[in-house]
TrEMBL record:
Keywords: Oxidoreductase
InterPro entries assigned: Gfo/Idh/MocA-like_OxRdtase_C, Gfo/Idh/MocA_oxidoreduct
Protein family per UniProt: Belongs to the Gfo/Idh/MocA family.
Signal peptide, first to last residue: none
Pfam families hit by this protein: GFO_IDH_MocA_C
Gene3D superfamilies: Dihydrodipicolinate Reductase, domain 2
Organism encoding this protein: Saitozyma podzolica
UniProt superkingdom: Eukaryota
Name of the protein in question: Gfo/Idh/MocA-like oxidoreductase C-terminal domain-containing protein
Annotated Gfo/Idh/MocA-like oxidoreductase C-terminal domain residues: 29-179
Molecular function, one GO term: oxidoreductase activity
Amino acid sequence: MDLYYPPPNPTSSPLHVTLRASIMSPLPKQLRFQIKGSRGTFIKHGLDPQGDFREELARGKRVEDVPGYGVEKEEDWGTVWVAEEERDGAVFRSEVDARRKAVKQDAVARVHSNRRWFPADLLRRIKSEPGNYPALYSNLYDAITSKDPGRLAVKPEEAVQVLRLIELGVRSSREGRVLDV
């Protein structure tokens, strides 16, 4: 799915967002998110760790009673590179090449992008927030039993907006054209 956003001001470029999903991949560490911009890139691998606790929750344990529930291993944290200023890919690649030569091999990070190895000082690991899917269902239960939809963490109108975007994506694909939102 491709999303097009108008420029926020006359001197900016329009924003083009591409969303792709697939369960078919032979890679041992699945790419979950890749966000690229003119000032940086964020890459995230790995599965949501909440699935690892299904059996314990099915046996009636509460999230609060399961140590480490929803907490990712450090190896699955996201990786971000942020530029101090906007630059194009050619300038970025030349800077990476120059820094790579200046940095000893043992300082090279094991993150690969655009078939280049980045020096460690250009990257930062981002710790993921712990997940808690059961809290969403508890919130739904609370809103229903209290008869107060204002308590919902996800408002009905927000869910409708997401469903509308999905339906527009399907229609756009079927018709082979860009649709206005």
